[in-house]
What we know:
By secondary structure, this protein is an all-alpha fold. The chain folds into two domains: 9-86, no CATH class; 90-150. It is built from nine helices and no strands. The longest helix has 14 residues, at 41-54. The protein is elongated, with a radius of gyration of 20 Å.
Amino acid sequence: xxxxxxxxxxxxxxxxxxxxxxxxxxxxxxxxxxxxxxxxxxxxxxxxxxxxxxxxxxxxxxxxxxxxxxxxxxxxxxxxxxxxxxxxxxxxxxxxxxxxxxxxxxxxxxxxxxxxxxxxxxxxxxxxxxxxxxxxxxxxxxxxxxxxxxx
Length: 151
């Protein structure tokens, strides 16, 4: 099961439990895998973070959520996200996500599209103020503030 991709300890435990292995056997297998460094939550967290940022162009909050969903401790998730995002320009990351969504267009068509793109960027884990700034650079200057979405 580890041949295809890296799995967190929690994911390995879940999969072994689904195959109806006893708790003792699962603990022994996980201990052996940890000792052999076949499972390493920090390594899995970094792999998830790199995929989420480089391929999916997601923001800090969404990346941390994806790492935690893999059953990795919040402290490891937070540390990994801080390390990975230390080398990433947030504005460039938002611009890349926005360019992908605009599919070659430079400008935002109307307020409705502005709203839709705002929800998309926030849903991708970008901070609302940074998402608004990026959208304003692509849209008309007279878009009203969307403070109701920030709260």
